[in-house]
Each structure stands twice: as structure tokens, then as C-alpha cells.
Amino acid sequence: MNTFRLFALAALAVAGLTACGPKEAPVYRFKIKVVAINEDGLVIPLQNAQVRATAPVVNAIPDFEGQSGTDGIVRDANGNDLFQYGLPAVLQITAQKGGNPPVVFGCSYLKLVADSTATVEIVVQPYVEGVSGC
């Protein structure tokens, strides 16, 4: 009986120590790929598109920028293709290539999910003044 009490006390102590540890904050990760549709209707990666992901509100805190590579994957200035944010958010993502106005433009929205990696594929199309936009 004494051994049983000692075992039960040890189990409670271990449970108490692990339950009271600090809880890690969730991480919201996302990846972006930029593509275009060619004349044959095939999806092809688009290189050198300027991409911005931000919340569609004034003075938004999340604000990410990058450029698509030969594979269409967007990378930041440091070459990272995985972006992360510390809070839940819905981001508006725009991709464009060319001057002002751009030659091609595309946009979409992405809801970030806690402790997972959300992905979005932005399809760019020829820019038409007054028609293109999110």
C-alpha cells in the first residue's frame, strides 16, 4: 500500500509540473506562388513578380514583400520562401509585373491558420485599367 501511495504522489507531481509550463504562442506561416496561364491554357510559374501581402485596412501591421523566382515561389529579400506572423489574420495578396501601370496583375486573400502553413497560388492576368483589382 505504501508503494502505491508513493507512485500516485510521483504521478501527481509529474502531471503538475508539465501542466503548469508556459504555453507556446501559435505561429501562422504561409507560402505564395505566382503563376500565369499561357496560350495553351497551361499554368506556368511567373518569374520576377513583385508581391505584397498585407491586411486590407489602413495602417495594417502585417506587411510582407517579396519577389517570385523562376519556380514562381515568392521569397523575401533574405531568400526565405516561408513567411510567418504571430497573430491570426486575413491577408490580401497582390502580385504584379511591369511598370506603372503593371503589365500583369493578380490578387487573392489568404486566411492564416494557427500552427500550420497556408498556401496560395496567385494567377496573374493582363492588367486592364479600371477592371483589374481585388
Characterization of this structure:
The protein has 134 residues and is mainly beta. The chain has one domain (25-126): Immunoglobulin-like (Sandwich). 13% of the residues lie in helices and 42% in strands. The chain contains one helix and nine strands; from the N terminus they run αβββββββββ. It has one helix at 2-19; strands at 28-37, 43-45, 50-54, 63-68, 74-75, 83-85, 90-97, 104-111, 116-126. Strands 1, 2, 3, 4, 5, 6, 7, 8 and 9 form a nine-stranded mixed β-sheet that branches. Strand 7 (90-97) and strand 8 form a beta hairpin. The longest helix has 18 residues, at 2-19. The radius of gyration is 23 Å and the shape is globular. The mean pLDDT is 87.
Give a count of the beta strands, DSSP E runs of length 2 or more: 9
Gross morphology is globular
First-to-last CA distance:
71 Å
- Strand content range: 35-45%
CATH topology call: Immunoglobulin-like
Q: What is the radius of gyration computed over CA atoms, rounded to a whole number of angstroms?
A: 23 Å
Helix and strand run? HEEEEEEEEE
Q: Major beta sheet, specifics?
A: 9 strands, mixed
CATH architecture: Sandwich
Quickly name the level 1 CATH class.
Mainly Beta
Mean pLDDT: 87
What is the name of the CATH superfamily? Answer: Immunoglobulins
**Share of helix, binned:** 10-25%
Number of helices: 1
